[in-house]
């Protein structure tokens, strides 16, 4: 298998997994919460049942922000090719997190969860599969 070219990190990418969000704009009508101000090609709402596993892969070029609308996610990650135990972060309702390319990642759902995913690349199946490498970071 041909090794993918290294991905150049963007100075605009978050430095940590959990992304600090700008303060919401609030008035008598309600509130507007800014999430991501970046060029992207895909927005998905994903629901996951309690006890299930998603991801267990990495992307060669794609990145994604995920915003937890309800529930929570046990997010596991490590650099591609690392043999180290993956880091684990609990992402709660109302939190935003970021996955850059070339980071192995998996999600475990301790409760029924709905989250929004905003991605650089298109998420039609053909494009998605071309950029994806499946692994088993977390046992399903």
Structure commentary:
The protein is mainly β and 140 residues long. The chain has 1 helix and 12 strands. The strands form 3 sheets. It has a 5-stranded antiparallel beta sheet with strand order 1-9-6-11-4, with no helix packed on it.
Any descriptors?
140 residues, single chain, 5% helix, 5-stranded antiparallel beta sheet, mainly beta, 1 helix
Overall pLDDT, averaged?
92
Structural class: mainly beta
Number of H- or I-type helical stretches: 1
Helix content bin: under 10%
Assembly type: single chain
- Biggest sheet statistics: 5 strands, antiparallel
Q: Give the spatial strand order of the biggest sheet.
A: 1-9-6-11-4
Strand content: over 45%
Regions with little confidence, pLDDT below 50 for 5+ residues: none
Rg over alpha carbons: 15 Å
Q: What layout of secondary structure does this protein have?
A:
Elements: E1 18-19, E2 25-27, E3 30-32, E4 42-48, E5 53-59, E6 64-70, E7 72-79, E8 87-92, E9 96-99, E10 103-108, E11 113-119, H1 125-131, E12 132-134
Antiparallel strand pairs: 1-9, 2-3, 4-11, 5-10, 5-12, 6-9, 6-11, 7-8, 7-10
Characterize this entry briefly:
The protein is mainly β. The chain is 5% helix and 45% strand.
């Amino acid at each position: 298998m041909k090794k993918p070219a290294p991905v150049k990190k963007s100075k605009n990418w978050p430095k940590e997994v959990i992304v600090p969000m700008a303060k919401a704009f609030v008035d008598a009508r309600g509130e507007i919460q800014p999430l991501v101000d970046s060029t992207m090609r895909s927005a998905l709402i994903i629901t996951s049942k309690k006890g299930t596993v998603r991801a267990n892969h990495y992307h060669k070029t794609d990145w994604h922000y995920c915003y937890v609308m309800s529930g929570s996610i046990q997010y596991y990650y490590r650099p591609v090719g690392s043999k180290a135990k993956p880091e684990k972060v609990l992402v709660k309702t109302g939190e935003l997190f970021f996955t850059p390319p070339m980071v192995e990642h998996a999600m475990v759902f301790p409760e029924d969860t709905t989250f929004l995913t905003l991605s650089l690349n298109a998420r039609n199946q053909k494009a998605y599969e071309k950029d994806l490498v499946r692994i088993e970071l977390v046992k399903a």
